[in-house]
């Protein structure tokens, strides 16, 4: 009794707005501009003179703004400090990659007379240490260890943090309570103490150190991802995805995660820097992998001669400072490019 | 048999240890091919009702029966099958599309999830869906932020229709749009309904939109339906004082508005007034109204009203 068929007559009866003549004129006008493929209902809506959305001219869906990712890249590359960071990091990465070509010998081998100052001997531009090892070779090979540990620790930390944070934030309730407690347990233990304990338990090798650093740095990622997921899961496009019958995995990884990532990427660049610092600190204290040179271990061995040959500690120290600085500059640049509130993407 | 029937539905949210009853005993039906308008103030529970019907929120009690099946407790494959049949168009076209997915991804993902169209033909199907709502196929490679509000709402409609549902819940689909774009979207919805044989539950706070669009109107106040009927009869003779106030509030050219037709704010659903829930704002309230909660009683001719002071005799 309330079917659609009663509607057109009702509309005509009640709406005195449009007279019959106007009706016909409107219908004719609509009919003229409509494609013949849809010969329907002008009599349905006699009082309305607006074309429906499908019949409006939509020839051009203009590109209103550059696509998000490209725009973010532009913002990033037009930021001088970010580009400076990128250049410094490129030099460090290049040195690390080229190390076996530049210095094919083991950097832990004695190469010449000990304790030559930088510039003293053209064979050793940065001098030699107390055991006659080439400082430049150590620096270049140390970059490999530092970057490898920094990158793999961050990757592992991101993986764990994203999984835990996404699960907690998306499902909420008891799952969230349990996982948040777990995160808090890790965060209440001072990070570096936990790291020393973990490394002391395991054999000091590069993968073990990377995993131990990841175990210390994932809670921060998890907290951030959880907060992002809690905010984004309330958005309409997530409700639409649920209404369309998407599974949890698809909603987490395809719908929410790409929107949650920008601040995580920023955090990751800083986490790499922190991981490099942690590795250096461990090696400085002699807890690092004894079979490889790292910047931290170079500073550690140079410590005894700080008053007579300070360059032994200063050279790898400068390397650490520059690398960490470059990663922080990149992090700032990424933050500016990816954070919509700072006018980058949007 | 109605396509959708909602029976004594309750739903709410827990907040601060107290239950907020957003939907508080709602019953109605949507027949196949019918457009039912749901009107009410902001915060009266319209969108919550839509979310419960869509199973985005679980009902506390009562039944949502779709095509003879109670969907309230469905899980897994049967729930997925229901989702193919019932879809929703959201109010805010800027929040309802994933900003990091291209239109092609947005429109083909539902087909992939439901395994409806062979992989190689999904892009074609998505392009067809775009053309159905009046957008060019080239839009497939674009991202949501490249579209205007009206265009985005058309994308939302295309996404809702890509699974060929039978019921579409339109949750204030035009209230975020300019007036001229509103008419376009309404006409598009009307044409799609005629072409595809859809049923709509059309939610709006704007009576003139509902009046233009709906066969039958439900008036909702504070989680409950207070009056129903065909829109002609409701507009000709509103029986509930709240409906009367809503109709009075519609601006008409040439009619000078007297005092505000309705004073005060919608009470919180956390703190529902005793008796008739409208009585603190009602001009006709009597002591009876403060004590006894009127039920929605049928008056014939498809009308029903929840008011102690509505005429007793049946309407014809």
From TrEMBL, chain A:
The chain crosses the membrane at residues 82-103, 147-172, 265-288, 309-330. Residues 143-331 form the ABC transmembrane type-1 domain. Gene3D superfamilies: MetI-like. Coiled coil: none annotated. Keywords: Cell membrane, Membrane, Peptide transport, Protein transport, Transmembrane, Transmembrane helix, Transport. It is a multi-pass membrane protein. It is found in: Cell membrane. PANTHER family: D,D-DIPEPTIDE TRANSPORT SYSTEM PERMEASE PROTEIN DDPC-RELATED (PTHR43386:SF1), OLIGOPEPTIDE TRANSPORT SYSTEM PERMEASE PROTEIN APPC (PTHR43386). Belongs to the binding-protein-dependent transport system permease family. This is Peptide/nickel transport system permease protein. It comes from Xanthobacter agilis. The lineage of its organism: Bacteria, Pseudomonadati, Pseudomonadota, Alphaproteobacteria, Hyphomicrobiales.
From TrEMBL, chain B:
It is a peripheral membrane protein. One of its GO terms (molecular function) is ATP binding. InterPro entries: AAA+_ATPase, ABC_transp_ATP-bind, ABC_transporter-like_ATP-bd, ABC_transporter-like_CS, Oligopep_ABC_C, P-loop_NTPase. The keyword Transport applies. It is found in: Cell inner membrane. Transmembrane segments: none annotated. It catalyses: glutathione(out) + ATP + H2O = glutathione(in) + ADP + phosphate + H(+). Keywords: ATP-binding, Cell inner membrane, Cell membrane, Hydrolase, Membrane, Nucleotide-binding, Repeat, Translocase, Transport. Belongs to the ABC transporter superfamily. Glutathione importer (TC 3.A.1.5.11) family. Its EC number is 7.4.2.10. The complex is composed of two ATP-binding proteins (GsiA), two transmembrane proteins (GsiC and GsiD) and a solute-binding protein (GsiB). It comes from Xanthobacter agilis. It is an enzyme of class 7 (translocase). Part of the ABC transporter complex GsiABCD involved in glutathione import. Responsible for energy coupling to the transport system. The keyword Secreted does not apply. Residues 4-247 form the ABC transporter domain. It holds the Pfam family ABC_tran. This is Glutathione import ATP-binding protein GsiA.
